[in-house]
Amino acid sequence: MRERVELWNGMNAKNYGDPDGVGNLNDYFLLQRVIAGLTYSPNNKITISAHLQDSRAFGWSLRNVKYPDLFKIRESNTETPCYTRNPNEEFFEIHDLFFEFKGLLLDSLAIKAGRQKISFGDKRIFGPGDWGNTGNWTWDAVKFSYSNNDNFRLIAIIYGSYMVN
Predict the structure, then answer these.
(1) In this structure, are residues 15 and 25 in contact, taking their beta carbons and an 8 Å threshold?
(2) Cα gap 74→79, rounded to integer Å
(3) DSSP 8-state code for residue 123
(4) Burial readout 55-82 (b: 16 or more C-beta within 10 A, e: otherwise)
(5) Residue 44 in 3-state DSSP?
(6) What local confidence, expressed as pLDDT, does residue 147 receive?
(7) What whole-number distance in Å separates Cα of residue 6 and Cα of residue 15?
(8) Measured between alpha carbons, how far is 37 from 115 in angstroms, rounded to an integer?
(9) Can you give the pTM of this predicted structure?
């Protein structure tokens, strides 16, 4: 469970200081993220993980109902809402749900399939996105990897899709 208080002075996610924008320019709110679940690893080769996440923003002036018009698709010169991309609220979503098997044919080959976080090294590639309350950069993917040890992947092949919160 993570609790964080934010005080925004003269800025919010929809108007960046524009006094005619949507939302309160001097927002203050409590961000809460709860992740609950289990990780089961019967040995050092198999890992099964299943976690749910609930992210909420209490006292925030930009609730989900004000977000659908933020991202739109242009079709035939008309704008229609595409999806809600709210960085602070996501109610009862799958955080991760994957199966990982290390030692596939060779000790250095591994496969990981399902909803997962993907990052490499210092997490600048793909990145964890944990600075936001919903935790961005979640993928529904299959990842094959070859490594010389647990800390350095020499080759990674990924097939999947980025999950929009």
Answers:
(1) yes
(2) 5
(3) T
(4) bbbeebbbeeebbeebeeeeeeeeeeee
(5) coil
(6) 84
(7) 17
(8) 14
(9) 0.76
Q: Which residues pair with 38 in a beta bridge?
A: 50
CA of residue 59 relative to chain centroid, distance: 22
Can you tell me the distance from the alpha carbon of 72 to that of 80, in angstroms, rounded to the nearest whole number?
Answer: 6
Tens-digit pLDDT profile for residues 14-54: 665 455 666 666 778 899 999 999 999 999 899 999 999 99
Rounded Cα distance between 90 and 165, Å, is 7
Tens of pLDDT, residues 59-116: 887 765 555 444 444 455 555 555 556 778 888 999 999 999 998 888 889 999 999 9
Q: Amino acid identity, residue 85? A: R
Q: Tokens 């289990």 sit at which residue?
A: 38
Residue 130: which of 66, 14, 35 has the closest Cα? 35
